[in-house]
Every structure is written in C-alpha cells, then in structure tokens.
Amino acid sequence: MDISRKSPFGPLPSPPLAEKKPVSDTRHGITRTDDYAWLRADNWQAMFKDPSILDPEIRAYLEAENAYMDAAMGDTAELQKVLFAEMRGRIKEDDSSVPMKDGAFAYGTLFVTGGEQPHYFRTPRDGGEKHVLLNGDEEAKGKDYFRLSGIDHTTDHAKGIWGYDDKGSEYFTLRIRDLATGEDLSDVLENTAGGGVWAPDGKSFFYTLQDENHRPSKVFHHIVGQPQSEDRLVYEEKDPGFFMGVGGSLLDDFIYIDIHDHETSEYRILSTSDLTAEPRLVAEREEGIEYSMTEGGDVFYILTNDGGAKDFKIMQAPVNAPGKQNWTEVVPHEPGRLIISHMAFARHFVWLQRKDGLPQIIIRDRKTGEEHAIAFAEEAYSLGLQGAAEYDADVIRFSYSSMTTPSQLFDYDMVTRERVLLKTQEVPSGHNPDDYVTRRVMAPAHDGELVPVSLLYRKDTPLDGSAPCLLYGYGAYGITIPAGFNTNILSLADRGFVYAIAHIRGGKDKGFAWYETGKMEHKQNTFKDFIAAADYLNQQKFTSYANIIAEGGSAGGMLMGGIANMAPEKFAGIIAAVPFVDVLNTMLDDTLPLTPPEWPEWGNPIDSPDEYQWIAAYSPYDNIAARPYPPILALSGLTDPRVTYWEPTKWVARLREKAPGAGPYLLKTNMAAGHGGKSGRFQRLEEIAFEYAFAIKVAGKM
Q1: What is the 3-state secondary structure (H, E, C) of 244-311?
Q2: Residue 676 has pLDDT above 70, yes or no
Q3: Does Hydrolase count among this protein's keywords (predicted)?
Q4: Residue spans of beta strands (DSSP E) within 433-579
C-alpha cells in the first residue's frame, strides 16, 4: 500500500507547530533530549483538581490543536450526527436493571428517557414500587463532567455511601445519604478512591484516600458525624509501587485490605467484631506471587499462583488461621485452564475460568464435591459472573452475549441447574442476528504462535479485500477483550466494515503465559501480534492494508504508537485514544500517579540499564522516524491521571516534526474530562461517533 496517496482530508490549514524548548536527561550514560517537555504542566497535581490554573501557553496550544482538528473533521459533522442517532437508537433509553435481592430489598439501577446518568433504586424484595435512592441526573446538573461511583447501603438498609468525581481526575468526594428521606448527612470526605465499606452496625465505614500523587496509599475508618480530619488511619502502604483497595465479605465478618501491583499481592484483614484492632496480615508479599480471598463461613478460599501455578489454583484455610502454612488445595492447577475469579456461598463454591480461549462457569457442591459447568453453544462468546448479594443463596446471576447475540441476563439455580432468562438487551431500532456473521480465526505470528482474531461483519459484505476494517487491540495487564455484543459497531458493519478484535499477547486470552510473553522484555510481541493480525486479514481478503484502520486506547494506545512506527504502510489510519505513548519519560518519572506500580508491567528504567533499553527500543514517542505515517487521530483528557494529556500532545508534535508530509496528525483534547472521556451515556456516544466518522472518512466511505 502507498500511504502517500491522495489524502482523504484534502487541503487543510497549517497545523500548530509546538515551540522547541530542549530539555536533556542522562541515564545509564545515555543522553536524550526532549524538545516538547514543556507541555507537561509543572503544577499538574493541582491542575487535576482545578483545571483553570493550567499554564496559559499550554492551554493556548491545546486549543490551537482542537481548532486544527475541527477544521480537518469539519466535513464529518453531519455524519457524526447520523452515527450518533443510529447508536442512540439502539439504546433503550428508559432502561432498568433486574434488581438484586439483598435482605428486605432488591437493589438496581435505571436510566430515564433523555437522561445521561444512572439512577439507583430499590424495591421490596419480591417486587413492588421503585424507590429512587440517588438520581444521577439531578446530582450532575450544572456540571461539565460528572461521574458516580455507586451507592453502598448499610446492613440495616438505613444509610448509603455514594461518591462522585466532577472533574475527571478520579478524586472522588464521598457523601452519606439517609435512604428513607433522601437527605445527605453533613459528612463530606474529599480525595477518596470512590467507595467505602460499612461496618455491620452502620455507624462507621472504611475507605481509601488518594495522596497528592494520586495513589491510594491510606485506609481510614470514618465514624458517621465526625470530621474527616478525625478519621483513624487503619493502614498506610509505604511502597509507592503498590495499589490498595478496601472491601468486605458477604457475611460482613471481615474488612479486606487488598494491596497489589501487577504481579504481587498481599491481604490484611480486620474482623468486624473489633473495629479498633490492627489489620492482620494473611500472607506476606512475595515478588511474583498473587492471591485473592473470599470467605466461605469457617474457611477462606484463596485464588493464587503460588507454587508455580501459572494459571492459578484455589486453596482454603481456616478463618482463624489463614496464614500460608495452613493453605490446603481445593482446585488444583491445570495448565491451560486459567481461573479468573471465585466466590463462595453457604452450599456452593463457584469460579470463572477460561479454557481454549472461552470462559466457563464451574459450580461445586461444598458438601458432596460434585462439580458441573454451565454450558453454552456458540463458537465465541462473553460471560459475566455477578453471583449473588447474599451468602445464604442457591441462585446466582450471570450475563451472556456474543458479537451477534445481544446481552442476556440469567438467574441460575445451582441445585436444580435451571437457568431463568431475566432480561434480553433490547435494541429499539431493531437487530436481526441472522444478518451478521461472527467468526474466530487464528493469525500466525512471527514466531509461530497463533493469534486469535474475533470478527463481525454483515453476511453481504464482500470478502475480496475491498471491505474496510476497524482492527481493535489492547494487549496489556493480562486484560482479555471479550467477544461480546456491542451495538455501536453495527454502525460500521452496516456500512460494509469488518470489525476485528486481535487477542494479542499481553492479555490472558490463551492463559497466563499469553500475558507473560507480552510484557517487560517481551513487550514487542504485542505489537508484532497485532501486525500479524493485519497481515492475516489482508492475505485472507477479509480486507486489505489500504483499508485497515487500527484502534486502541490507553495501553492499547501505546500499541497504536508501536505499530505506527513498525509498519505504518499496513494501516490506512490509526485511532489512538488516551494513548500511553511517552513510555520512557513516564517510567522515568516516579512522581506520576501510576509509574511505580507500573514497573512490573513495563520495567524500571531508573534502576535497570537493561529495562531502560527495552523501553527505549519501542517507546512510540522515542522511535518516530522520518517516514510516511497514515492519518492519526489522538484523543486525550486534560485531567486524565492515568495517561496524562501531555503524552499524546507531545507525540503529535513530534510526528509533525519528524514526518511533516504525511498524516494528517489530529489531536483532540477534552478540556473537561479525564481518562474515560465524557461521563454521560449519550455524551460518550458523541465521542464514539467522532472516532467512527474518522474511520469512515479515512476509508473513503463518506
């Protein structure tokens, strides 16, 4: 393919050119110069909380980029409206979840026609009138950005903790609501991670606080009615390389403090019978050893990779002596069967596993040891295990979908093995699954591995190489991208696109080893796998290089930067959402929110010359070459604490410098949002419509 062909964008005004202000950095005897380091706001911590204090020079540059992007995409305005209307038409606006039973009530969420935010409600346990506990639309009034973290009720159902972020910076404010009156108490807790866990008596709760570097480093105990300044510090994690969260058991017997990075974990537990006690260590952290816990009455069930169990096994230990010396095996390690999660109920033990690339739900009778799997027929599908809100339950809930089958919600009786369909996702504008084909194909990688690729296209799409293709990938943190139902992509499929998901290394799609061989020194396998997927789709004439638009976000945005440098000629366009592209500089800056916790995923270039070289070899920002690149759309959020706005901003500036005759390179910065973009359900559709309009324009299908 010749990506120097006539641009689909036509004549454009001159793009913004960032001023060069060289800053040099020497590590391990290697000196690098960054001409665009000035785009990183020196006061970023404060700016995340108050975006108005952003340096005027940086703001002016970002606004100039947005103006250039508007000029380049101006002719898609009508197409964006059409796409938005199509996608909105597939959403049931006045939708409601099936409430989950918990004590005297059942709890759920609903949306109203025209509403952007969820409303949280409850009904009497066996049905009846909905009582709205929290109206997200009402709370969001007058705010450019608003995101709820949910609402958690007390055991007696009298009060609820709810949280919100109104800047996109993921610093959440917590409030306490009287669920009978709907009034909030005077308590206001700032800079939290977004949720809390009630003590059984409903008089206090536990929560995590985000520090100035946006790390959840402290767990506090808050007594209702007292100032946040008087909250008791329960545990502080001194190592900046570890994340921390707080949770509770179904039986309300324990508070869990979960401390982990990407490959090591540690639990501390606090019995709710003595809230003033010090948390008790379960098993001391060991590098590379992960474990997670769920309570099963007199035992804990522990999911772990200890003892070489790469694809995980399940152990149990007495509640009063949960140390590793007392762990005994319950579900053995089986290579190639990755156990993803587990939960326990009074009479049954349940886990979600992935085998041969497909998820399965396994149920074991705790008394007899008898096991069975919930069976499914389709070739590729997605499962979600919701379980139950009560420990003394025989019925659990799960969701099922495929790329052609709308999401279905089931209640499943673990004793009778009867499944009851509770709800099928409605597509108000209509959807006929028989109009579409979904397939799973295997693309040979550079080293002989086979990369799974999930496909969706209309039955009448010609498979002669002429079809445009949106090829999506992520490939990091062991996250598996499910082959689930997504109404938005039907707007592409109905325009003749093949939609493809490349299940590349870095995820756990084919087990834990699939993850291990896509991280650290093996990271470039992720990029090569994605290119192999493009090669296969081209060779098999599902599409052609001239018609492939690549898409990825966050760590998948790093993937986009990597493949842009390695094989720009194989892509007609690239969409990089909140892209992690300045990898080396970010991993060298240990003040940034995610840097120390991310070292086990990418490497620590501060301490290790080898790991510095690994990252330097692929870091997209550092490897831009003077060669033609396809049109690139980069998207960012000003208050994003995960991938800071300056990463895509610097990347686009250097692309213009190094490869000025290609592109164009477009940068869209959302000046009122963070990592996830806009917060409302329809506002988010506007952003997807924009991205799809770019893909359609690049494909020449406008």
Answers
A1: EEEEECCCCCEEEEEEECCCCEEEEEEECCCCCCCCEECCCCCCCCCEEEEECCCEEEEEECHHHCCC
A2: no
A3: yes
A4: 436-444, 450-458, 469-472, 498-502, 548-553, 573-577
CB environment 297-330: b (16+ within 10 A), e (fewer): eebbbbbbbbeebebbbbbbbebeebebeebeeb
Nearest alpha carbon to residue 580 among 602, 558, 604, 601: 558
Using H for helix, E for strand and C for coil, what is the string for 152-193?
Answer: EECCCCCEEEEEEECCCCCCEEEEEEECCCCCEEEEEEEEEC
Task: Report pLDDT digits (tens) over 443-469.
Answer: 999 999 999 999 999 999 999 999 999
Euclidean distance between CA atoms 378 and 262, whole angstroms: 32
C-alpha distances out from residue 317 to 301, 328, 364, 622, Å: 7, 7, 17, 49
Q: Is the pTM of this model over 0.85?
A: yes
Query: How far, rounded to the nearest angstrom, does the alpha carbon of residue 188 sit from its chain's CA centroid?
Result: 28
Adjacent-strand bridge partners of 558: none
Using the structure block, give the residue that is written with the tokens 């086990």: 600
Residue of 228, 234, 248, 236 lying closest to 278 (CA atoms): 234
Nearest to 643 by CA among 610, 620, 609: 620
**Alpha carbon separation from 60 to 57, 63, 168, 368 (Å, rounded):** 5, 5, 21, 68
Tens digit of each residue's pLDDT (9 = 90 or more) over 221-276? 999 999 999 999 999 999 988 989 999 999 999 999 999 988 999 999 999 999 99
| Residues forming a β-bridge with 515 | none
* Contact indicator for 58, 669 with CB cutoff of 8 Å: no
d(CA 313, CA 320): 22
Residue 4 confidence (pLDDT): 44
Domain ranges of the chain: 29-88+431-698, 94-334, 336-425
The tens digit of pLDDT for each residue in 539-552 reads 999 999 999 999 99
Using the structure block, give the residue that is written with the tokens 């990938």.
473
CATH 2.130.10.120 fits domain 94-334: yes
C-alpha span between 168 and 190 (Å, rounded): 14
664 preceded by a cis bond (ω within 30 of 0): yes
| Residue at 461: amino acid letter | T
The amino acid at residue 664 is P
- Please check whether the domain covering 29-88+431-698 is classified as CATH 3.40.50.1820: yes
Cα separation, 446 vs 457, in Å, equals: 27
Separation CA 137–CA 127 (nearest Å): 25
Decide if 636 contacts 648 (C-beta within 8 A).
yes
Query: How far apart are the C-alpha atoms of 483 and 314, rounded to whole Å?
Result: 27
Q: In the 3-class helix/strand/coil scheme, how is 392-428 assigned residue by residue?
A: CCCEEEEEEECCCCCCEEEEEECCCCCEEEEEECCCC
CA nearest to 193, candidates 237, 223, 159: 237
Q: Which parts of 381-532 are beta strand (E)?
A: 382-387, 395-401, 408-413, 419-424, 436-444, 450-458, 469-472, 498-502
